[in-house]
Amino acid sequence: MKRKDSLEIIRFGTCSKDCYGSCVFKGYWNDKALEHKFLFAVPSKDHPFTNGFFCPKLKRRENLVYHQERLKTPLIRSGPKSENIFKKISLKEAINLIVVKIKKIQKSNNATSILGAFYAGNSGIISQYAPLRFFENLGATITSGGICNEGGCAGLKELFGTYSITNPFQIMNPSTKLIVIWGSNLSESNNHAYYLVKKALKSGTKLVVVDSRHTLIAQKAHLFLHIFPGTEHLLVKLTINELIAYHAHDEDFLNSYVESYSTIFQEVAKIDKEKLLRQIGIDLQTFQNFVELLIKFKHQTLFNIGYGVQKDYFGGKIVKSITLIQTILGNIGKPGTGVVYSQSDFIKPLLQPLQEYITNIKGESKMTEIPIIKLGSFLSSGKYKMLFVYNFNPASSLPNQNLLRRALLREDLFVIVLDMFFNETTKYADIVIPAKFDLESYDLISPYYIPGLSINNGGPCPYQDCLSNYEFFQQLAWGISLENTQIFHESEETIFKNSVRMLPSNIQEDLNSKGYYLLFGNDSVPFNDLKFPTPNKRIQAIGPHFKFGEKELKRKVNMKKNEFLLISPSHLYFLHSQLGQLNQRYLNEFNKIFLTSEDIETIDLEIGGKVHVSNEYGSGIYILTESPILKPRTALIYSGLSSTSHESPNVNYFVPDKPEELGFSGAYNSAIVKIKKLDS
Ligand code: SF4
What we know:
Elements: E1 2-3, E2 9-14, E3 24-29, E4 38-43, H1 61-65, E5 75-77, E6 86-88, H2 91-107, E7 114-118, H3 125-129, H4 132-138, E8 141-144, H5 150-160, E9 178-182, H6 186-189, H7 191-202, E10 206-211, H8 216-220, E11 223-226, H9 232-245, H10 251-257, E12 258-259, H11 262-269, H12 273-280, H13 284-296, E13 301-305, H14 315-329, E14 338-340, H15 344-359, E15 368-371, H16 375-380, E16 386-390, H17 394-397, H18 401-408, E17 414-419, E18 431-434, E19 443-445, E20 452-456, H19 469-479, H20 492-501, H21 505-514, E21 516-518, E22 539-540, H22 550-557, E23 563-567, E24 592-595, H23 597-602, E25 610-614, E26 619-626, E27 634-636, E28 671-677
Parallel strand pairs: 7-8, 7-16, 8-15, 9-10, 9-13, 10-11, 12-22, 13-14, 16-17, 17-18, 23-27, 24-26
Antiparallel strand pairs: 1-2, 2-3, 3-4, 5-6, 5-18, 19-20, 20-21, 23-28, 25-26, 25-28
Helix pairs in contact: 5-14, 9-11, 9-12, 9-14
Bound molecules: iron/sulfur cluster.
């Protein structure tokens, strides 16, 4: 921290929103100001991913921090559940009420009926994990797993023993001559990687995009494969068959580094090319152009796989199969090759001791865990009496909203939500505690798309009742007489400083002087020794690789005339359901269901008319809107918010809570819906 002039103090910060960017910045503060202490943020120019700019969604974070609708005092319910009707209470009263409830549960020896539900709404590791000190002490239940990329990570881990194979700086490696962006709408959801890809294109790198939507980046591609959602593995099967037919596979690489690779050859040996092309939804020429580019740029091709492709019941297997193209070609462990997915596994060895310290859990934990994706069905059981929610808006983000919301209405469930604004979940809260913003707390951020660490040097919060996650649970710990436990004497700042001190000195220096540390330089190539963290250090290509999802594919092929596969990407301007206030002016976008104009004509409906959308999980009324970017038989409703109209519920009302099978994440793109004229 350094003082620029008499008023301004500069603190390093990181945008902790659950986003690919994890933008690093310098925050300018006036600590003496009564309210608007945080003045503005300047994105780091020297950070090779932030590159001196924020996304348009969070350019002016100072407006959000002091937004007039920010929650500033604790609230207690004064109206029916499912509405945000509360009255103010003091922080002391709120803490006392919660403490009394906890003590009662403790007396009945039923601490596992206290459930902590959290995710990465604030991706700081102290914000996410320091509250576990409290839950561990109680012997409570917590949620585990996730709703995002866990399926793909599990699939890649089966092959490589890790899901971090290479880093996004390879996009700019001079050896990269072809980039394949597979299922990732970079131009909208990852604009820092998009910036790097555009730079690479300027220097002559070729670009292929494989996607079920004709996105902006697809328009910039040299070749675009517009495929049906959920057919990625069929395209891989077809591609590998063709590569082998051209003898383009890298036999030396396969023999030396890949276990059981013959299983891939066996599975792709017999194919019906025409049928596969029909199922995938592309023509022969486009496919052949793809294969030609892969052959031309063998050992010079980088894949970037988005998280949308794994939001399927078989998402992990789909991601794993895509990676087989790179494996067959020997495009692993060389400059300008590999697969960019999640970076989190690279940093894990460094973080593990910190996490043990932050949670105060070494070895076996006393807590019980339930998968977050099944929160609705666990709450429905009636076992849970208290629910704490932080860094998470489950009544927006989780599938099968009808089931979840019914469970949240249970009379015997006392719900406490810690958040910055009213949202879908606060509608079910008994008590709401106002939360601090990320830049008002001390934290370490370990990004999932950038290999490294960065920090938030917390600045002052002008509202005395706003608490960080740790501060809230620390007060509860004191309230239920856990105050003698030494760990709750530590302040958040102390936990942060001790965590930084546990890191090697070069990392500490970088964090203190620049606000971030990167694990790799621009030219470092992970796994260039081709030794992977598997039992025999080889890539484990143990089949079957493509035999899955046949029943689901058949169901999609046999959809009735008015049935459509529903996909739910996030809207360009949607940031985060916990920060709903930012997105108000786009709320009308969430009233719409998008179809191709041909499909609208086929089912004899009118553009702009209201339609009834339903499946076995939910129903609602939406405005039928034409989209030129979709594949036929695909419908799109944007995810994130509920619309302005009560009749058009959040898209997750239609999504099954049956999880993805390998990583137990959400199968958000697996729902089939019926669309009918409203009057029928
Ligand atoms: S939301 Fe993402 S891209 Fe936007 S400022 Fe935050 S980290 Fe950066």
